[in-house]
């Protein structure tokens, strides 16, 4: 039994004790009899429902076990892992391996989502993947050099098939062709600094891809889920597709709600190299408002943790550093804390950033 706490649920706050039996909530109330129960005194604490982090990558420095540990420390109780299926690798083989790894190592409930590449040879594997319980598949409209970019025709075929199977297509939407040209341009100049890295993946490239992918999904009659929306223009493209009557889900991430390129890139360097990149205060505030009014359906972490060395090696330029940053451990804390400190809805009128607010006002349960 967890006693003496304030429970925060979808309808507000209330005071109650929580009775737990066999790992499940068995009773809620102010007069629960603690006889025979182990009692955890949570006076002064808030008790929240466990969060679902619908977008994590158990790769690089991590596996399904360590990702679940980080998530558990952050109040997450269920994870949806994005499983990397490399070109040439079997989709079902990759999913089966991940399921076995997770069954042995994960400390949390989890589900799997599959990266979708090489669409023509994958289509026949999709029904069996759905049969395994995997219903979300994620093609990319970028990363041609890594061999994982999907052409529009293949995207269309994949969306039709996935939709017919009752699944959902998740898309990493950035215009990869334009980004390739920008990257090549910077490479010719000798590389790019961390501060200039966001210039290689501009918001227009993201918005264009979201718009195009949404139009293709409309043609395919398929529902669509856009992962990690980072900017106002991309959100606009989702809103336009919804106005046409399409089912389009919008995800943003905790880092786009708390960090901006201006602040983070000079401070954190390539550790803050993610894709899409961090954007502006306008984008951050627009996304907060969209979380509030539900234009954004959910917030995830896009957790993708490298070793410190891999993200900070001084010998490489920012173009050669991998994409991704950790986040599942801090996602829930950041969302609650920044929201409570009144960032939501204010536009450029504050003198301190959310991150500075957090640093100077560490979270206290009784505040
Ligand atoms: Zn991701």
Describe it for me?
The chain is α/β, with parallel strands linked by helices. Residues 344-355 and 357-367 have low confidence and may be disordered. Strands 6-7-8-9-10-11-12-13 form an 8-stranded parallel sheet. Strands 1, 2, 3, 4 and 5 form a 5-stranded mixed sheet that branches. The radius of gyration is 21 Å and the shape is globular. It is built from 14 helices and 13 strands. Helices cover 38% and strands 19% of the residues. Helix 5 crosses helix 7 (203-220) and helix 7 (203-220) runs parallel beside helix 8. The longest helix has 18 residues, at 203-220. The protein folds into 2 domains: 1-49, Urease, subunit C, domain 1; 50-360, Alpha-Beta Barrel (TIM Barrel). The structure holds zinc ion.
Order of helices and strands: EEEEEEHEHEHHEHEHHEHEHHHEHHH
Neighbour order of strands in the largest sheet: 6-7-8-9-10-11-12-13
Global geometry: globular
Helix content: 25-40%
By CATH, the architecture of the largest domain is named: Alpha-Beta Barrel
> Mind summarizing the main beta sheet?
8 strands, parallel
Radius of gyration: 21 Å
Overall mean pLDDT: 90
CATH topology annotation of the largest domain: TIM Barrel
**Beta strand count:** 13
Quick structural gist:
The protein is α/β, with parallel strands linked by helices and 367 residues long. The chain has helices at residues 64-73, 91-105, 119-122, 126-131, 152-164, 176-188, 203-220, 232-243, 254-258, 261-268, 281-292, 308-312, 331-340, 354-360; strands at residues 2-9, 12-21, 24-29, 40-41, 46-47, 51-56, 76-83, 109-115, 136-138, 168-171, 224-226, 248-253, 298-300. Helix 1 (64-73) crosses helix 2 (91-105), helix 5 crosses helix 7 (203-220) and helix 7 (203-220) packs parallel to helix 8 (232-243).
């Amino acid at each position: 039994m967890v006693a003496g706490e304030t429970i925060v649920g979808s309808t507000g706050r209330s005071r109650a004790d929580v009775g737990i039996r066999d790992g499940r909530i068995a009773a809620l109330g102010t007069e629960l009899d603690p006889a025979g129960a182990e009692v955890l005194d949570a006076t002064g604490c808030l008790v929240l429902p466990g969060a679902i982090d619908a977008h994590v990558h158990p790769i690089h420095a991590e596996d399904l076990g360590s990702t679940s540990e980080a998530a558990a420390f952050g109040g997450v109780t269920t994870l949806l892992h994005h499983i990397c299926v490399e070109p040439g690798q079997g989709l079902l083989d990759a999913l089966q391996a991940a399921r076995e790894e997770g069954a042995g190592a994960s400390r949390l409930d989890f589900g799997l989502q599959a990266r979708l590449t090489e669409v023509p040879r994958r289509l026949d594997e999709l029904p069996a993947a759905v049969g395994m319980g995997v219903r979300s598949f994620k093609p990319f409209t970028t990363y041609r050099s890594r061999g994982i970019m999907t052409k529009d025709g293949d995207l269309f075929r994949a969306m039709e098939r996935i939709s017919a199977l009752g699944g959902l297509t998740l898309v990493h939407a950035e215009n990869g062709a334009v980004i390739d040209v920008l990257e090549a341009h910077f490479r010719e100049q000798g590389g790019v600094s961390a501060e200039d890295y966001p210039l290689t993946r501009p918001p227009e490239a993201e918005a264009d891809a979201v718009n195009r992918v949404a139009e293709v999904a409309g043609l395919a009659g398929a529902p669509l889920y856009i992962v990690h929306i980072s900017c106002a223009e991309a959100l606009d493209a989702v809103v336009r597709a919804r106005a046409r009557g399409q089912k389009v889900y919008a995800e943003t991430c905790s880092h786009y709600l708390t960090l901006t390129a201006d602040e983070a890139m000079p401070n954190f360097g390539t550790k803050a190299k993610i894709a899409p990149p961090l954007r502006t205060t306008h984008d951050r505030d627009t996304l907060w408002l969209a979380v509030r009014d539900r234009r954004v359906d959910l917030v995830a972490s896009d957790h993708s943790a490298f070793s410190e060395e891999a993200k900070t090696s001084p010998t490489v330029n920012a173009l050669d550093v991998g994409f991704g940053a950790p986040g599942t451990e801090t996602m829930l804390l950041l969302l609650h804390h920044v929201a409570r400190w009144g960032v939501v809805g204010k536009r450029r009128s504050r003198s301190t950033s959310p991150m500075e607010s957090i640093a100077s006002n560490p979270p206290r349960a009784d505040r």
